[in-house]
Amino acid sequence: MDVAPVFSWTGGYVGLQAGYGWSDGVTRFPEDATAAVHHDGRGIVGGAYAGYLHHFASDAVLGVEVDAMASSISESNGRIVNVSINPGTQAVSRLDYSASLRARLGYAFGRFLPYATAGVAYARYTPGFDSPEGKFEDEMSKSGWTAGVGVEHAFTDRIVARVEYRYSDFGEEHYPTYDTPTAYVPERNISLRTNDIRIGVAYKF
Fold first, then answer.
1. CATH number at residue 47
2. Per mean pLDDT, which of 75-79, 80-84, 182-186 is the most reliable?
3. Which residues, 6 or more positions from 1, have their beta carbon under 8 angstroms from its beta carbon?
4. Is residue 3 domain-resident?
């Protein structure tokens, strides 16, 4: 006969979270394999999450979760390698926000729940250049995958706190050549990867 757990993780929840993140963005130019711009941003992230978990009799816990995060991750002086630019030009970037839809799988030790999570991710990313002639920005939407691990603890039957690490990979996309009033923009391949550590508190229904 199955014995019901003392505490059940089954149910929906909503929460708020905040943390610190860093990004690794690279712009490469097919016309010159030695040229690249590296955007290594740092900053604060914060937002909301919501989901549903089911606690099985075996103490396995399976669920689904969505989140949306605002971001101050940015870079004001990225590393420029073998790119011909005007003196005084700086490589800049910012990650405006991100979101994800993920599965969660964990194993409950009473009110303590270590878990792994993985799914699809979306981000609004803007690399560019700030020069004496003006500022150029490449605003783009990036999609990819995300995965991470975390631990949760139910302090009461309703209040659950967590610590989570996440890695997101938004792949590499090709962007064509075009002209702006202040610059010629060659064809380029832009990739983005992010890492962050978050602390959250949720209300369990």
1. 2.40.160.20
2. 75-79
3. none
4. no
Nearest Cα residue to 182 out of 142, 128, 119, 145: 128
Q: Are 12 and 170 in contact (CB under 8 A)?
A: no
Closest to 69 in 3D by CA, of 121, 105, 114: 121
Whether 1 is covered by a domain: the verdict is no
What values do phi and psi take at 18, rounded to 5? Answer: -150, 155
**CA atoms of 36 and 170, how far apart (whole Å):** 18
Quick one: tokens of 17? 């979270």
Q: Please answer whether residues 194 and 24 qualify as being in contact, where contact means their C-beta atoms are separated by less than 8 angstroms.
A: yes
Look at the pTM and tell me if it is higher than 0.70: yes
pLDDT at position 3 is: 53
Task: Give residue-wise pLDDT tens across range 152-179.
Answer: 999 999 999 999 999 999 999 998 887 7
Q: Helices (DSSP H) in the chain: which residue ranges? A: none
Counting the structural domains of the chain, the total is 1
State how far Cα 154 lies from the chain centre. Answer: 25
Q: Burial-class residue 155 by CB neighbours within 10 Å (0-12, 13-18, 19+).
A: exposed
